[in-house]
Amino acid sequence: MTRFDVVVLGELNVDLIVRGDVVPRWAQAEQLLDDATLTLGSSAAIMASGCARLGLRTAFIGLVGADLFGALCGDHLAARGIDIGGVTVAPDLRTGCTIVLQRDADRTMLTFPGAMAHFGRAHVAADAFCGVRHVHLASPFLQPALRPAIAEVLASARAAGATTSLDPNWDPAGRWDDVPDWLPQLDIFLPNDAEACAIVRAHHDAAATLEDAIAWLAARVPLLAVKCGAAGAIARWGAQHVHCAPPAVVPVDAVGAGDSFDAGLLCGYLAGWPLEQILHAAVVCGALSTRAAGGTAAQATRAEMSAALDDRAG
Ligand SMILES: Nc1ncnc2c1ncn2[C@@H]1O[C@H](COP(=O)(O)OP(=O)(O)OP(=O)(O)O)[C@@H](O)[C@H]1O
Ligand SMILES: [Mg+2]
Fold first, then answer.
1. Fewest C-beta in 10 Å: which of 2, 20, 173, 191?
2. Domains of the chain and CATH, by start
3. Is any ligand 1 atom within 6 A of the Cβ of residue 235?
4. For 42-101, what is each residue's pLDDT tens digit?
């Protein structure tokens, strides 16, 4: 008997998404913004929310501080029906926060890591992966305490019978350490195009093109899916190579689109679909998530995803 379809491990913080035609200036005491939204942030939490929205039985393992932001994270996850028994609340830590400043189509992000920098192996219970079909991990480079244990965590998930996936997101240090040690423990690897190129340039060929990067990574992991923003995504699974464009949407913001993509891809993977249908599900979920501000508000339900897939097939 399985308890969960997916257990997500990773960072847990809030996003304060602000929009306005401003460039912050130190000397100027106050500048006005057009909009502000405080919501659940972090790649791992947005991905878990996407999975739950698609009907997957989902659990989260992470760490927050005993504060308002931590409570907001827990409430958001629980409201989606996600099991938060694996979320530790640390009274001596503060929950992290990302300020997402949006101006026209441009955005910049300022992150206080807080508790996410302290999340480590000790916060993952010994029986965390029993009766679990799949384990997903996100943003290793924002979690220095967890990073040395990631290969072992993934191996223990597999030893318990789960399949595994990782979304690297960006490495602020630009070094991409340890990725070659993680790839052999993965069933699915989910970088975006810039991340895929940066990883391969750091570890193999400083002049690697996207095509080179895909070939190098695909030789090291069973299923590779590379996200390419509005251009959709590319996937390789053994000898199969697929590209999918997303459906037409009018994006409000693309915060968390990659994480909603991951959720759609996993939904199709766990359903045993063929690669082309899996990638279609992923790009549909990524695109639909851009319909509202923040990562989780407009994530696709199972019915919305199915309708969009039917539209494409028709
Ligand atoms: N502007 C857009 N229009 C339509 N679809 C989009 C757009 N931006 C993203 N998507 C969809 O979301 C998917 C993932 O987006 P993206 O490539 O931005 O991932 P990412 O870089 O990992 O994002 P993040 O880490 O910021 O969540 C794309 O493959 C596409 O299906
Ligand atoms: Mg991403």
1. 173
2. 4-20+35-305 (3.40.1190.20)
3. no
4. 999 999 999 999 999 999 999 999 999 999 999 999 999 999 999 999 999 999 999 999
Q: Is 299 in the pocket of ligand 1 (CB under 6 A)?
A: no
Give the residue from 35, 78, 148 showing the smallest Cα distance to 296.
78
196 lines ligand 1 (CB under 6 A): no
Give me the mean pLDDT over the 249-269 stretch: 93
**Is the Cβ atom of 294 under 6 angstroms away from ligand 1?**
no
* pLDDT confidence of residue 293: 82
Ligand nearest to the CA of 47: 1
Residues 6+ apart with CB under 8 A from 159: none
The SS3 call for residue 280 is helix
Q: How far is the CA of 281 from the centre of ligand 1 (A)?
A: 13
Residue whose CA lies nearest to ligand 1 atom number 25: 258
